[in-house]
Amino acid sequence: MERAEMEANRNKEQIVDVRSVVEAVSANDNGAPLYQVESLCMRCGENGITRFLLTLIPHFRKILLSAFECPHCGERNNEVQFAGEILPRGCCYHLEVPSGDPKMLNRQVVKSESATIKIPELDFEIPPEAQRGSLSTVEGILLRAADELQALQEDRKKVNPQTAEAIDKFLLKLKACATGDSPFTFILDDPAGNSFIENPFAPSTDPSLIIRFYERTPEQQASLGYLVDPLHLEDHRDGASAEEMGGASDEVRREPHGSVGATAAHRAIAHSNSAEIVETMFKYSAPEEVMTFPSTCGGCASRCETRMFVTHIPYFQEVIVMASICDACGYRSSELKPGGRIPEKGKRISVTVNNVNDLSRDIIKSDTAGVKIPELDLELASGTLGGVVTTVEGLITKISESLERVHGFTFGDSLDESKRNKWQEFKAKLNKLLSLEEPWTLILDDALANSFVAPVTEDIKDDLQLAFEEYERSWEQNEELGLNDIDTSSADAAYNSTDTKMGEKSEV
C-alpha cells in the first residue's frame, strides 16, 4: 500500500499545468524534456494525459510533438506543431516516385495544418483539414488516407452503392501507389512554408525532388491569419473596377501621412510590381531622394516607418533600397528590390575566389537566384536565403549559419552516426572556403538576371576572375516565374497605334 501511494504521488508530481509547459519549452532551446499535462478526453469525458516533447528534425527545424492517451477508454491521438514562426514565403515540393523503389516511400514527410497534398495521376487531393500537423512518411500518408476512405465504405454501400464502388476502384489505385507498384507524383504545397519532404542526399541536390518557393496570394495570407485589405482580395479575384480605382485615388489625396508619391509607391510594393515601383518613384521624386511611408513592424506588429529610394549600381541596373526601424521593439530590416523591366534572358555569374580581395566582393543575390559551389557539390535552389546584399564571405557565412540552424549538423536523436559525420565533414569543408586553402568557384544562377557580383578592377572587362553568361530561359523556368501567362498583345497594339499616329502627324 505504501509503495502504491508513493507511485501515485510521484505521478502527480510529474503532471504540470499547461502554462508551465509553455514557459519551459519557450525558455529551453537545447532540447526540452518530456512534459505531461492532465487534459480532458473528448470521447469519455474523463481526464487523460497529454505528453509534450520539443525536438529537432534533422534537415528541417524544431517542432513540438504532443501525444494524448486516455487510460479509461483507450483513446489515443498525436499532433505536430511548429515551434517557429510562419516563413516569409510558401513552399512547394514535387517528388517523383517511381515504381519498385521502397526507399522513396520511406522518406520523412512533415505536413503542417495549412498544407495540401496532391497526386495528379489519381486526381487526388488531401486538403489542409485532413491529417493536419502530421509527421509520417510518403507511404504512411497514403495508407492513412486509404484507411480514412475505407472507414465508411459499409455505410456508403447501403446509401449509394455506385459511389462506394467507385471509391473501391480508387482505393486499389491508391494502395498500388502506397506499395510502390505504380509510379506517381507526390506534391506538397504549403503557403506557410512549414512543411517538409526529406532529402537523403542533403546537402547535395536530389534528382527526384524539386523545391519551389513562392509569394503568397492575398487569399493565402488571409487563410494564415494575416490582416489583408479586402480591396486586395477583390483586386486579386476579379481585378479593380474604374470606380474602385477612382475611390482609391481620392483616398490617396486624403492620406495625411507622407506624400502622394509615397502612398502610390506603397501600393506598388504591395502588388510586388517592380516596374511600377520605379515608375512611381521617378514620377513623384528625384533619384536618390528618400521617401517615407507608414508600415507595420514584422516583430511586434506596431506601426513604424519604412524609408526607400531608387539608385543605380554601376554595371548593374536601377534598384530600390528599403529599410525599416521599429522604435517600439528595435526590430530592423532592410531589403533591395530590382527595378526596370523583366530581362529577356537569364544570367549566370561565375567568380573564382583566389585571395582575400575576392572574399570582399559585394554581392546582390535576388530571391530568384540559386547558388552553386562545384568544389563542394553544393547547390541551393532559387529562393533559398531570400534576397540578400552582402559579400562573398558574408554569403558563405549565411549559408553555414542557415544549414546549422535548419538542418542541424550535430543535433537530433534520429540522426545516425554516419550522417552526423557527413554533416560535420561538410561544415569543415565549408569553413575551409574562407581560409582560401584552395581556389574555389561561386556561381549565381538567376533566371531574372537580377543578381550581381562586383568587380575588383575599375573596368569590369579587366576582371578575368569574373564571368557573365546569358542564357535563354526554359519553359519550366518561365512557368515558375509566371511569365508564360503574361499577354502583352493589347499593350503592343496600343503602342504600335500610338507610333503610327505620331508618324502621320509628323508627315503632315
UniProtKB/TrEMBL annotation:
Keywords: Metal-binding, Nucleus, Repeat, Zinc, Zinc-finger. Residues 39-199, 295-455 form the Zinc finger ZPR1-type domain. GO terms for cellular component: nucleus. The keyword Zinc-finger applies. The keyword Repeat applies. Residues 479-508 are annotated as: Disordered. Residues 486-500 have a biased composition (Polar residues). InterPro entries: Znf_ZPR1 (IPR004457), ZPR1 (IPR040141), ZPR1_A/B_dom (IPR042451), ZPR1_jr_dom (IPR056180), ZPR1_Znf1/2 (IPR042452). GO terms for molecular function: zinc ion binding. Belongs to the ZPR1 family. This is Zinc finger ZPR1-type domain-containing protein. It comes from Juglans regia.
